[in-house]
Amino acid sequence: MMNALGQPGTVVVVGGTSEIARAILTRVLLSRPCDVVLAGRPGPRLDQAVRGLRALDARVQPVHVDATDVDHLVGALRAALVGREVDVALIAHGVLPDQDALERDPVAAGRLVTVNTAAAVAVGTLLAGLMRRQGHGVIVAMSSIAGVRPRASNYAYGATKAGLDSFFTGLGARLRGTGVHVVVVRPGFVRTRMTAGLDPAPFAVGSDDVARAVLAGLDRDVVWVPRALGPVMAVLRLAPRPLWRRLDQGPSQRLLRRTLAPWVTRPRRPQTSTRGGPR
Ligand SMILES: NC(=O)c1ccc[n+]([C@@H]2O[C@H](COP(=O)([O-])OP(=O)(O)OC[C@H]3O[C@@H](n4cnc5c(N)ncnc54)[C@H](OP(=O)(O)O)[C@@H]3O)[C@@H](O)[C@H]2O)c1
């Protein structure tokens, strides 16, 4: 159960080795030790994540899952959650394959949708039911700016995030008044293992920036990281197609980054809540 300061007692994470998830968990644990159900693919990375969280005094229950197998994922998570109350669930697993490689591999393109969208939808449905029965909880779903308007350079990934985003936005509307809240997180480029080796896009942030924004925004419906991306994308999603296509190209990206850098890298002010304090 959340305490009076809105700090969770139990957190469930799918994508337990995600750098963004780990940054969020670290911040949660620095304020209060809690129970963590950590679902991820078995292996050294998951073992290391478990050790890291235990070092921060978390009581960690690892759950071995693979998001390519939705049946097993749901079964394993359901079994791990029997008799538990869940305060916060973070759906953070995902892959960003190379677009060119996907175009040569239809099976991989289909599998991408299974991992990024189908598995997230299945987990979201499971957790929404559980939280509805207990009468409280927050589901945090990691969407992406890429889901807002498809780009030629990563349209397959963007499509998976558009599906996820739409599902969790609708789920949030569906759950209004039940005590369960859904937060859709839309980061731009985050410097993590997922983007290693890629040219940083304009507005690039670190995983701790995402963690800070998510934890300050647990009472919001949508969290953009950085926040400035919300208004920028509100305009860019209406841009004529030829202009949008040009913005996806290297020189325009560099120009955009240079133009916006001074504006987005100025000192951060604390995010203020629109609905009165984090839960
Ligand atoms: N980095 C960005 O720029 C960015 C921007 C917007 C949104 N996002 C989203 O934020 C979330 C976290 O990303 P991140 O940057 O933290 O990336 P990350 O460190 O690469 O984490 C990705 C996570 O997904 C897990 N995963 C991949 N395939 C899986 C599978 N088949 N079954 C189970 N788990 C699987 C990985 O587990 P393994 O350790 O087993 O591989 C890892 O835990 C993702 O949903 C991503 O799409 C990221």
Question: Overview of this structure, please?
Answer:
The protein is built from ten helices and nine strands. By secondary structure, the protein is of the alpha/beta class. The longest helix has 29 residues, at 106-134. It is globular, with a radius of gyration of 18 Å. The chain binds NADP nicotinamide-adenine-dinucleotide phosphate. NADP nicotinamide-adenine-dinucleotide phosphate binds next to helix 1.
Provide key terms for this protein.
7-stranded parallel sheet; globular; single chain; two-stranded parallel sheet; 15% strand; Rossmann fold; 279 residues; disordered C terminus; alpha/beta; binds NADP nicotinamide-adenine-dinucleotide phosphate
Strand line-up across the major sheet: 3-2-1-4-5-6-9
| Mean pLDDT rating | 90
CATH level 1 class label:
Alpha Beta
Largest sheet: 7 strands, parallel
Poorly predicted runs of 5 or more residues: 264-279
- Number of H/I helices: 10
Shape estimate? globular
Q: Structural class, from secondary structure content? A: alpha/beta
For the terminal residues, how far apart are their CA atoms?
Answer: 11 Å
Number of strands: 9
* CATH superfamily grouping: NAD(P)-binding Rossmann-like Domain
Helix content: 40-55%
CATH architecture: 3-Layer(aba) Sandwich
Structural domain tally = 1
Radius of gyration: 18 Å
Order of helices and strands: EHEHEHEHHEHEEEHEHHH
Q: What small molecules are bound in this structure?
A: NADP nicotinamide-adenine-dinucleotide phosphate
